[in-house]
Amino acid sequence: MKNLLFLLLGLATAAPALAQGNNYAQNYHKYEGLALTPPMGWNSWNKFACNVDEKLIREVADAMVASGMRDAGYTYVNIDDCWHGERDAQGFIHPDSKRFPSGMKALADYIHSQGLKFGVYSDAGSQTCGGRPGSRGYEFQDAQMYASWGVDYLKYDWCNTEGLKAEGAYKTMTAALRQAGRPIVFSICEWGTDKPWDWGQTVGHLWRTTGDIYNCFDCIEDHGTWKSFGVLAILDKQEGLRQYAGPGHWNDPDMLEVGNGMPENEDRAHFTMWSMLAAPLITGNDIRTMSPQTQAILTNKEVVAINQDKLGVQGFRHSAKDSVETWLKPLNGGNWAVTFLNRSRRPQPVTFDWKATPIVDSLSKTELNATKTTYKVRNVWAKKDAGTTKKAFQATVPAHDVIMLVLRK
To answer: Residue 64 in contact with residue 114, Cβ under 8 Å?
Structure first.
């Protein structure tokens, strides 16, 4: 009788726990239907680092509209590190009250009123890279705050993450975002250390593949314990990753440095190669004061269209000869983008016989075969037609520059 009594008491005690169990099941899958083409927008870090405030962000939003950036497809206005203030007694994060006196909800509302979207930054560790409060241990509270502010995009960094495993840490924030109930694009900024392409497709919408970029075309900057990489160094690190990219899940070779100090030819090559990679186009310059040349590069609609092509296939390096690389990107409708990249400091001639070089891309199961199909050739930077594939293409590629073509049926 005593054993029966203990059994009944045990079942009575366990019943509420069993009934509540489903309430704690987490959804570790990102919001679907977002970032079906590579995200486009602006981020504060490359130009302003920690010098951010609401006045700057409002002015950038205004400039995104006035400059034609918004109409060219740039949607997100993202505040990177150092917007954070303190946590309140309940642990909820608040912005720095001196830098953002109106609060994040008012700022998000203003950005939304401009036809743009709002992004913020946090970190999987105890502190951000800039020493502000990180989200470790506060993931669900932070996600609730972001949702209440109207955040559309979260960049989630990887500083001060002692003992954490990347996949688990990012899944925790994904679950928090899902529970908060607002669809938010989730940017995994883990620097490629733990191969996020292997596990990130269901967790986030994009993932960093390398360490940080900086505004140099062909350089590597050694900081001792870590390195920054120029454009070509990052480009080379994308080898072998294209099979992981596609609509809703993109390889991220880091933000654009266009307009931050490189000459126009290198900016053009940088922007071209990121477009060929189907990379997120997140600019990092001062939109308010950019030169006409920078504006023309960033808003070239034909180049942007290659990046935003709905087929969502990342380009690949087909061949290399005398410092000139030939890159190809399959496009929707059986069309192709072709880029000749000159890595050298001298102009280089290029000849490409379309009929002698049939190309099959096993990833997209597409073929470029000029013996079967005659394509019209368009030079997208020169903004002029360049004949057809009946004739071999011949040109000179300037130093540290590109020629970018679109082949259309």
So the answer is: yes
Task: Give the model's pLDDT for residue 46.
Answer: 97
Name the pairing type of β-strands 384-388 and 376-379: antiparallel
* Over residues 194-223, mean pLDDT: 97
Per-residue pLDDT, 211: 96
CATH 3.20.20.70 fits 40-307, yes or no: yes
Q: How far is CA 99 from CA 75, 129, 372, in A?
A: 23, 19, 61
Domain 316-408: give its CATH superfamily.
Answer: Golgi alpha-mannosidase II (2.60.40.1180)
Q: What is the pLDDT of residues 151-166, one digit of tens each?
A: 999 999 999 999 999 9
C-alpha distances (whole Å) from 13 to each of 2, 25, 154, 185 are 17, 20, 41, 41
| DSSP assigned state of 287 | G
Domain with CATH 2.60.40.1180 in the chain: 316-408
* Catalytic machinery residues: 157, 212
Q: What is the pTM of this model?
A: 0.93
Q: Where are the beta strands (DSSP E) in 98-230?
A: 117-123, 153-157, 185-188, 206-208, 220-222, 227-229
- Band of residue 23 on the pLDDT scale cut at 50, 70, 90: low
Q: Tokens for 149?
A: 């502010």
- pLDDT at site 9: 41
Non-local (6+) Cβ contacts of 377 within 8 A are: 385, 386, 387, 388, 389, 393, 405, 406, 407
Where would I find the H helices in 150-290?
Answer: 166-180, 196-199, 231-236, 264-276
Look-up of token digits 């990102």: 30
